[in-house]
User: Which sequence fits this backbone?
């Protein structure tokens, strides 16, 4: 199998990397992260113009990509640039849910996303769910031509900036049943919807979202009632690949910066990269990063396959490897830089924080190691 990227993907990656290197400095990123919105509408519009968002959707959906390798290409570049804009929340999680289950009217929202005119997010995770897709305690009750939603969602990315929130709620069954989960599109500002927004340690934004007697029309139902689990698995699966690829991109930046530092920093009259103990540590980092790259390639290849078990195992393997290796690269890069490695002015600690944070989004390494094993035994 040829693992080299296609010419189109190489050109897209080169364009994104060049743009981010020239227009998205670490100082620019800090300013955006500290802003009231937590993202830059100007940068978001530019990403749409560059085709970054369109590359995450198929031609039938209005884009020009949408495959696993397209997602990996875009998010590796986003990892290089340490981008904080809501690409994952809007284009991958919410966008994939709309593409998978939406009717024609709902899929029209995808056009707005691709054009850079809409911020959307997926509100699924709950405080006691422990990353399990099937565990949903938020309830939606049919009331004539409406549904009434009650419950709470945790760590919803960019919920305070989203114009549309796709929320999972149980319309039947027990709290941990796969069947009985439904998805609803709830516009921002709907009566009974409240949230508490905050900044994460890595510079991204999230919110705790509460639903108290939130009434939405039956037309807000995304897909068939009670059949939302498959859509969640589809959207989250694409999100897992995106996160693993973003982590890989951030690892590459840390790796290169650390090698450069080891080759220039002198101690005892020698560059510290000549010390064998440090060479051994760096060699481990290099090997682990290549292992992570292999896991991302495997997941990208499996994403569009028909074998559900093989696909989900590959995605969990990639997310587990990204979490484990990302933490290693973050720790080693900081330690090999010494005290300077934790200074705010250096990009390194910000990459390290993002690498560690990625491990806790959509399931940490412990969760995905267990999921990988369970899938192998046919338990899921």
Assistant:
């Amino acid at each position: 199998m040829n693992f080299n990227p296609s010419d189109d993907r190489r050109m897209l990656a080169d364009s994104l990397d060049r743009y981010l290197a020239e227009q998205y400095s670490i100082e620019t990123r800090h300013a955006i992260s500290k802003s009231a919105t937590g993202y830059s509408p100007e940068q978001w519009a530019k990403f749409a113009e560059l085709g970054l968002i369109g590359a995450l959707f198929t031609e039938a959906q209005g884009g020009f990509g949408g495959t696993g390798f397209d997602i990996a290409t875009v998010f590796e570049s986003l990892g290089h640039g340490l981008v904080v804009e809501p690409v994952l929340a809007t284009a991958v999680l919410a966008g994939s849910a709309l593409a998978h289950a939406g009717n024609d009217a709902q899929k029209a929202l995808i056009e707005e996303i691709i054009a850079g005119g809409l911020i959307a997010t997926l509100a699924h995770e709950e405080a006691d769910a422990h990353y399990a897709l099937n565990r949903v305690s938020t309830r939606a009750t049919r009331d004539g031509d409406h549904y009434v939603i009650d419950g709470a969602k945790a760590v919803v990315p960019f919920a305070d900036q989203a114009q549309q929130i796709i929320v999972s709620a149980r319309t039947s069954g027990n709290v941990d049943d796969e069947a009985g989960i439904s998805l609803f599109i709830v516009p921002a500002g709907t009566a009974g919807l409240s949230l508490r927004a905050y900044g994460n340690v890595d510079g991204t934004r999230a919110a705790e979202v509460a639903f108290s007697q939130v009434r939405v029309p039956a037309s807000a139902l995304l897909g068939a009632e009670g059949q939302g689990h498959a859509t969640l698995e589809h959207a989250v699966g694409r999100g897992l690949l995106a996160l693993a690829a973003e982590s890989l991109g951030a690892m590459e930046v840390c790796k290169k910066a650390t090698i450069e530092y080891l080759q220039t920093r002198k101690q005892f009259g020698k560059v510290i990269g000549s010390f064998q103990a440090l060479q051994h540590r760096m060699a481990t980092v290099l090997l682990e990063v290549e292992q992570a790259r292999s896991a991302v390639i495997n997941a990208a290849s499996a994403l569009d396959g028909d074998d559900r078990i093989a696909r989900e195992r590959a995605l969990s393997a990639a997310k587990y490897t990204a979490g484990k290796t990302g933490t290693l690269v973050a720790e080693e890069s900081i330690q090999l830089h010494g005290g300077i490695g934790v200074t705010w002015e250096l990009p390194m600690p910000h990459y390290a924080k993002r690498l560690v944070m990625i491990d806790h989004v959509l399931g940490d390494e412990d969760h995905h190691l267990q999921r990988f094993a369970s899938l192998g035994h046919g338990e899921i």
Summary: The radius of gyration is 21 Å.
